[in-house]
Specification:
Blueprint lengths: L1 E6 L4 H8 L3 E5 L5 H7 L3 E5 L7 H6 L4 E5 L7 E2 L2 H7 L4 E7 L9 E7 L7 H24 L15 E2 L1 H10 L9 H11 L1
Parallel strand pairs: 1-2, 1-3, 3-4, 5-8
Antiparallel strand pairs: 4-6, 6-7
Length: about 190
């Protein structure tokens, strides 16, 4: 099987694919339609990929492009969902969804809610979410390949999206300079900011 893996270069999913002897192309680079077509992937997996995948690619590989997002969509699409879920007091979790033309808006295949301990740091919460999404994906890979899932549309009336700029502004406002800050400290800063 040919898999194009976009984003993080090291993770347990890549190790899992290698153990299956899949033909892998792994990159975090921005790819053109032609580069993707030349590889002829059966599946495209986006996980921590920093580039927007263009409409012509989404159309060509419809229902064969998955995104792994470390939030409980439709809440906290975009960047730093672990931080935003704390700040907005929304569900925390991970989501595997099909890619569409929007950002983190495609139909959901699998989700899992996750809970954070306030004594843990933002970095701890990020690591927890990454571990959860990788396990959820590996555990459901055969279900994905054999269309054994219930596809769920995301609500257009609910949810949230946060950009890099919004996240930078929030971190400046709350004086968050490092991910080693505890979630409890973040909550305290939010309370004091009101």
């Amino acid at each position: 099987m040919k898999i194009l893996f976009l984003g993080y270069q090291k993770n347990s999913i890549i190790d899992f694919y290698k153990s299956k002897n899949y033909d892998l192309c792994i990159t975090s680079d921005k790819l053109t339609f032609e580069q993707i077509r030349d590889f002829e992937p059966e599946w495209i997996i986006s996980y921590g990929y920093q580039h927007i995948i263009k409409k012509n690619i989404v159309d060509e590989y419809k229902d064969r492009i998955l995104n792994l997002h470390i939030s409980f969509l439709p809440w906290n699409g975009g960047v730093s969902p672990n931080l935003w879920s704390v700040v907005t007091n929304t569900k925390k979790g991970v989501t595997i969804h099909f890619l569409d033309e929007g950002i983190d808006t495609g139909d959901i295949l699998f989700q899992e809610e996750v809970f954070f301990d306030n004594t843990k740091t933002l970095q701890d919460s990020y690591n927890l979410l990454r571990n959860k999404i990788e396990k959820l994906f590996i555990d459901n890979w055969e279900n994905i390949m054999y269309n054994n899932y219930k596809r769920m549309k995301q609500s257009t009336n609910l949810g949230s999206y946060h950009s890099k700029k919004q996240t930078r502004q929030l971190m400046e406002k709350l004086n968050i300079t490092e991910w080693s800050i505890s979630i409890g400290d973040v909550l305290g800063r939010i309370k004091n900011d009101r």
